[in-house]
Amino acid sequence: MLIESGVGNGKLAAVDENNRLLTNSISMPFEHYIAKDFQNTFAASFHAVPNPGQVTVGVIANTAPDKKIVITRIMLQALVSGGTALPNTSSFFTLETNAEYSVGGDAVKVSNLSSGSAVAAPVRAYDNNPGLTAQPEVAYRVFALQGQPLDIQTTGNVIILPGKSVAIGYQSDQTNGGVIANVSFVVVDAE
């Protein structure tokens, strides 16, 4: 049995003797699909100097009223000195939700990963210990290693809703060096 396309293009689909529709499919990663069809894959690199206690490495806010920011990968790295040597149980990175930017820090350029694309990300991003309003909620905590990058594949489970933000913090007793966070994300419709 053959089923003809209803759009008038003359294409047919076959049904076998067991009443199964025969199909063909192509599989690709979510990020590749968003990049290929919409050029909505982005990255931002954040840095801060450690200071005893908590510093905010970076904050990223969704400014679009009708889009979601889906974080797909976070890479963290600490190159620090002064204080307790890494790794130790008192030095860790955090991913914080409900962390709204208030003041300070430096604006971060967000890059489109589709080379040459003019599509801009609907986000505001700051690094270098910006101030935050409200009390953020810690969603993740990852212990820091000296110089070794920590690669977190979030598989899209970190989503920034319209008007909301997330921050990456670093808790330690170090006083010198630097900590970085590289965040890759895609922008999708809110529905």
Verbal overview:
The protein is mainly β. Helices cover 5% and strands 53% of the residues. It is built from one helix and 15 strands, in the order E-E-H-E-E-E-E-E-E-E-E-E-E-E-E-E. The strands form four sheets. A six-stranded antiparallel β-sheet has the order 8-10-4-14-6-12, with no helix packed on it. A five-stranded antiparallel β-sheet has the order 9-3-15-5-13. Strands 1-2 form a two-stranded antiparallel ribbon. The chain is elongated, with a radius of gyration of 22 Å. The two termini are 37 Å apart.
Low-confidence stretches: none
Radius of gyration equals 22 Å
Strand order of the largest sheet: 8-10-4-14-6-12
Which structural class fits the helix and strand makeup? Answer: mainly beta
**Residues in β-strands, percent:** over 45%
Give the overall silhouette. Answer: elongated
Give the averaged pLDDT, no decimals. Answer: 92
Task: Describe this structure in a few short sentences.
With 191 residues, this protein is mainly β. The chain has one helix at 30-38, and strands at 2-4, 12-14, 41-48, 53-62, 67-81, 92-97, 100-103, 106-107, 111-112, 123-127, 131-133, 137-143, 150-160, 165-172, 176-189.
Tag the structure with descriptive keywords.
191 residues; mainly beta; five-stranded antiparallel beta sheet; 1 helix
